[in-house]
């Protein structure tokens, strides 16, 4: 609950991802509104850049997330818990019954977790 309240202060009002009551359709409607407004204000054209953030959750550096967390007003105990949650993670894969060795995970936000989208949004 405390993290949710702080996320409202940290995450900008123009961000639509991972916020209750918003979605990509809302984001596109707002973009279209701005584009049409600019064209109505005598713009001859509007440039639009689109990015594909594949593997975005997997590429978030832990030190950057840690730094961003420390800049918040979150309870220090919660910050330390999140840092502990991100550090010293390991993973391995099983393919056709063969288990690989453990690999250290030093970047990325764990997907499928409740806190993952919040941590990604800090970026």
Automatic annotation (TrEMBL):
Signal peptide residues on this chain, from the entry's feature table: none
Question: Entry's Pfam families?
Answer: RVT_1
- Indicate the transmembrane segments per the record: none
Q: Which residues form a coiled coil?
A: none
Can you name this protein? Uncharacterized protein
This protein's species is Paramuricea clavata (Red gorgonian)
């Amino acid at each position: 609950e405390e993290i949710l309240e702080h996320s409202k202060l940290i995450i900008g009002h123009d961000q639509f991802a991972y916020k209750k009551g918003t979605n990509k359709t809302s984001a596109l409607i707002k973009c279209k509104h701005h584009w049409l407004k600019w064209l109505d204000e005598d713009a001859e054209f509007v440039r639009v850049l689109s990015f594909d953030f594949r593997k975005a959750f997997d590429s978030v550096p832990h030190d950057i997330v840690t730094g961003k967390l420390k800049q918040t007003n979150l309870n220090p105990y919660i910050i330390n818990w999140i840092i502990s949650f991100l550090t010293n993670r390991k993973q391995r894969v099983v393919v056709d019954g063969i288990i690989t060795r453990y690999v250290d995970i030093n970047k990325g936000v764990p997907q499928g977790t409740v806190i993952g989208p919040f941590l990604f949004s800090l970026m």
